[in-house]
Amino acid sequence: MFLRSDLLPAARVDADPWWKNAVLYQVYPRSFQDTNGDGIGDLDGIYSRLEYLARLGVDIIWISPIYRSPQADNGYDISDYRDIDPLFGDLAAFDTLVARAHELGMRVVMDLVVNHTSIEHPWFVESASGRESARRDWYYWRDPRPGLEPGTPGAEPTNWESFFGGSAWEYDPTSGQYYLHLFAREQPDLNWENPQVRDAVYDMMNWWLDRGVDGFRVDAIDVISKRPGLPDGGPARAPFGVGHECFADGPRLHEFLREMHERTFALHPGTFTVGEASNASPESALLFCDPARREFNMLIQFEHVNLGQENGKFSPRPLADGELADVLTRWQETLGERGWNALYLENHDQPRAVARFGDPQNAWFESATALATAYFLQRGTPFIYQGQEIGMLGGQFTRPTDFRDVESLNYLRAHTGDDVPAGLAAISRDNGRTPMQWDSSPNAGFTSGTPWIDVPASASYINVEAQLEDPSSVYAYYRALIEARHRVPALTVGSFERIDAGDPALFVYQRSCEGSAVLVAVNLSGRAITPSGALIDEAFPSSRWNLYLGNTADSHSDTEQETLNPAPASSMAPWEARVYLAAR
């Protein structure tokens, strides 16, 4: 690893709005840090690691759901929006955490799930109490198909499939009707057509914002508006199931989101907002994140992480050279100066990036840092998922009993045989949910008890303790990327320009604005490649570039010439990454 921090400007960029040069870190509370020995992470654990996050350079902490919940989907099934689940602590512990984060210069963003609730939420309990319930219309209840026996296969009101497999309808024998759940059966969908539902949601959001929360990441927001009449869907479109076109990007979606903004975010200036939209394209993303539309600051989209899943999520194919870079480029170019990207490669719903897109066996460090370089310096706000900054790899899932995620368990129930399909082991959401690897002790410093999900064997050598003071670690590399994001103007307000380097595996791009420019060159492959020097030289005919950051031992300085080698057009080793700053 090579780093020349003296090349950075001395002062941090004064961004407007503030989040344009912020770095976000996602915490999955269940797996971050346990303090009471029950094997499940908690708020006190997050509090105990705030100085670590501040040292890394984090500006925003996104905390996955900690609301009261039966935990059918690890907290994404909420039974009380205004309380903390005892698994994690209580409201006093949360308030203390937020106050300390603010003291350290970090903001706290909550994960908000408003497409659905838990079946144990009082709203649904009342809704399910009978057809005459005052809250019956707060959820989607429908009669069976005419002429078919209720509760039997095919009698469901529509042919829609759940994101987690199987029908999206659950039969309630007490009332003789079905309720809709696009996710697990314990997660019934709220009916956003009902204005009382929206009023209740906005009131709850304002309650948290008034309490001191700095914003929200809003889960599955693109499915809150369903097609009128709830018609049958057409053929499945992988990786989504049947009916997806009937409930994604529904006709009133953006009406609802503008109303949400007006009723909540606009009342709290400076609020950080990001929506999750699995169906978004670069073109439709502008509907969510163009500031003039007053919906969200940015969008979490899925196109790049869904690559290679045309035959189903758990039947992935290897990606072709350039496939990932081409999708990232398309999003950069389409959103352009109008929209803003949430930049990420992994989160609680995705496997670890170095395992999915890199080469953990032969080039763990190089591919982890190359992938980091490729996504982190684009136009947008970079997200880091816990453990990504040390190159965590995910779990080893060889037995059905190794899994915990509801989606994976549903898939296994439908799978014939006792084996674990390779695609499931590789892509399961459990890969992103293994405990944070703090040290090389048996439970990786995560818990003194039995962890809720197994600690990977890789914790013995991939952990925070081993990397914290190592200037050539993945952790040190991420710190260098974060420092550049904070202090180089081009990385906050600069344009994005992809440069043709003559090979699809080479991802080369420039970020530039008046008085500041950055050249990023990454080899996203396991083979050495020489860029087309003519193309690089033509793009930068008179510029002198100083190497700020490199992830190979061959990156070095030529003090006699007062320049840094290797030059932009020189050969790139497998998984090599370089970040150049324009000479001032």
Helical percent range? 25-40%
Query: How many E strands?
Result: 21
The helix/strand class is alpha/beta
SS summary, helix count: 17
Give start-end ranges of low-pLDDT stretches.
556-563
* 3D shape: globular
- Overall mean pLDDT stands at 95
- Rg, please? 24 Å
Major β-sheet annotation: 8 strands, parallel
Strand content: 15-25%
Distance between the termini: 23 Å
Strand order within the widest sheet?
12-11-10-6-3-2-14-13
What does it look like?
There is one protein chain. By secondary structure, the protein is an alpha/beta fold. It is built from 17 helices and 21 strands. The strands form 5 sheets. Strands 12-11-10-6-3-2-14-13 form an 8-stranded parallel β-sheet. A 6-stranded antiparallel β-sheet has the order 1-18-21-17-16-15, sandwiched between helices. Helix 8 packs across helix 9 and helix 11 packs parallel to helix 15.
List keywords for this structure.
single chain; 584 residues; alpha/beta; 8-stranded parallel sheet; 6-stranded antiparallel sheet; 17 helices; 25% helix
Protein topology:
Layout: E1 2-3, E2 24-27, H1 43-48, H2 50-56, E3 60-63, E4 67-68, E5 80-84, H3 91-103, E6 107-113, H4 122-127, E7 141-142, E8 169-172, E9 177-180, H5 195-211, E10 215-219, H6 244-247, H7 253-263, E11 272-276, H8 282-289, E12 298-300, H9 323-335, E13 342-343, H10 353-357, H11 364-376, E14 381-385, H12 406-414, H13 422-427, H14 464-467, H15 474-487, H16 490-493, E15 495-499, E16 506-513, E17 516-523, H17 533-539, E18 545-550, E19 556-558, E20 563-565, E21 577-582
Parallel strand pairs: 2-3, 2-14, 3-6, 6-10, 10-11, 11-12, 13-14
Antiparallel strand pairs: 1-18, 4-5, 7-9, 8-9, 15-16, 16-17, 17-21, 18-21, 19-20
Helix pairs in contact: 8-9, 11-15
